[in-house]
Fold this sequence. Notes:
This protein is mostly helical. It has 14 helices and no strands.
Amino acid sequence: MSFNCLEDVESTIPVSPLHLAAYNGHCEALKTLAETLVNLDVRDHKGRTALYLATERGSTECVEVLTSHGASALVKERKRKWTPLHAAAANGNTDSLHLLIDSGERADITDVMDVHGQTPLMLAIMNGHVDCVHLLLEKGSTADAADKRGRTALHRGAVTGCEDCLAALLDHDAFVLCRDFKGRTPIHFASACGHLEVLRTLLQAALSTDPLDSVVDYSGFSPMHWASYSGEELLGWG
């Protein structure tokens, strides 16, 4: 007989009761298990903990139960190396994210990186979750942290065109002339995407930062070049 409450898990792969309770949002069952089990950070075949599943599913009560019993917010799943913080930020689960940050495991908990060097702040920006962006910045997330390609949260804000996210970053002194691995600034990205208001905001910030900067990337292209180009090469995150 097949028993598959996780949908994407084959019945032949063992799944812990802890994972099942977290996935299905059964907080009382989860509390009973958390009070009984020694290891709350057991991982499934994808490397996900019960806390990761509860966060991804948006079950704040389950997240609270697990964090209050000492479940780690820093255990990474296998493929993308996301922690529960990444899952919360990417899905816009602000209350869960708050609980995870306040678990107090590490002073720099908000700057934990995935396999590509992305922080929860970067994922919140990419998905337009303004509340998560504000929370992360207020809790000490580094506004200018760069991924493995040198791209920051501000680069991502320039791509998505979320003006509120951009304003939050600039309010926390994000450096508008930061350059990625090809010398491209957020201004290049905003130009390629055609986000006019974002572009105006970035240009104004750039002028107050360094009015003499020519804003040319390492290939000699200015934002004006990218404004007239399709932008596919520029925007490929890889």
